[in-house]
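sorry for the late reply, my laptop died twice this morning and i had to redo everyting from scratch. anyway the thing you sent over, i finally got around to it. pasting the sequence first so we're on the same page, its 378 residues, then the predicted structure underneath. double check i copied it right bc i was rushing
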Amino acid sequence: MNAGLNEEQRILVDEVRRFSEERIRPGVAVRDREHTYPKEIMAELGGMGLLGMSVPEEYGGSGSSSLDLTLVIEEIARVCPSVAVSLIASNSVCGWPISRFGSEDLKSRFLPGLAAGESLGAFAVTEPGAGSDAASMRTTATRDGDEWILSGEKSWITNAGVADVHLVLARTDPEAGFWGISAFVVPRDSPGLTVGAPEEKLGLRASVTAPLLFDDCRLPAANLLGREGQGLVISMAALDHSRVGIAAQCVGIHQRALELAVEYARQRVQFGRPIAEFQAIRFIVAEMATRLEAARGLTRAAAVAAGTRDAGRLASQAKLFASEAANRACWDSLQIHGGNGFSEEYEIARLYRDVRVTTIYEGTSEMQRQIIARHLLQ
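ok and here's the structure:
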C-alpha cells in the first residue's frame, strides 16, 4: 500500500527495495547462521545517505522526514531485519537526539560522520538490573573539573562493538530520582570504555548486541547532551522516534511472512490440490493481509505525527500493534508451511526467530499499553 506517497517517496521505495534484493538478500541465511555483521552493506547504506536520514542537511545528512525513514526501514526489514535494526539504532536513537538536543559543538563533531556512514551510532540505556524501569539505573557520571567520569555497565546494546558513537544515560544526582539522570555522547575510543562479549541471540543474529563497560571512563564536560538532569526526557523523545522505526521493521517482516505464506500455499499440494484452495488457509491469509495494512497505516500515521502532541501515543500504538501483528503473521506463515516451516532451509524459520524480540525491545508490549493508557487517562 503506497497510496498517499509522493513521487520522490515512490522512487525512494523502489530504490531501497532494489538494493535490498540485489545487495542484502544474497547471503542473508549465511550471515544469520554465522552471526556475521554485514559491514560492507552498512557502508553502502551510508554511501546512499540512509544512515544520515535523521541528520539535518547542514551537517551532511538528508534531513528526511520520519515517514521517509519508515519507508526505508520497511523495505530493508522485509529482506533482513538485522540490517534494519542496525540502521534504526544509528538513525533514531543516536543521530536524531544529537540533532535535537545537542550543542553546536556536539553536532559539528559527531553528526557529519554519522551522516556520511563513516561512523555508526548506538543507544545505551538498559542495564542488567534496569530494563523497563530505566529510572533505576545504577551507572553513574561524576563531575571532575572539566570532565565527567562514567562508571557502570550497560547491557543489550544494539551496535555495541561496531558503533563509533554512543548515546549513554547515567545517574548524575543520586537524590534527584527521575531528574537525576543525564545523557552523554561517548566516542568508542574514550578511555575506560570497553565492549563485552556479544550476545548469542535467538534472532537478529546479523546485528551485534553486546554490553558496554565503563571503568572510570572520562569524557569532556562538553559531551553532556542537553542539560544535566534531562537524560530521561531525551531518552523518551528518542524512543518515541525509534518505536515508529521498530513498527516499520515489523511491517516489513509481516509483509515478507505474508508473501512466503501465499507462495507456499499456491505450490504445496495435498489431497490432490494446492492448499491455497482450502478455506482454512484462505481465511488465515486474509487475516494476515488485513492486519498488515492496518499495521502499515498506523505506522505511517505515527510517522506523520512526529513532533505533535499525539506523537508519543501514536508511536506506542504503532509499535504495539505492528509488533504483535508481525509475531502472529510469522506464526501463521510457519503454520501454513507445516513441517517444512520448522526447517532452517525455509526463510520463514529465520523470520519467526527474528520477529520475536519486537514485542520486547524499545519497550515491551506491556509498557506500550501503559504509555497509551497514560496518554488517554491523564
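The domain at 122-229 is CATH 2.40.110.10 (Butyryl-CoA Dehydrogenase, subunit A; domain 2).
thats about all i looked at so far, will dig more tmrw
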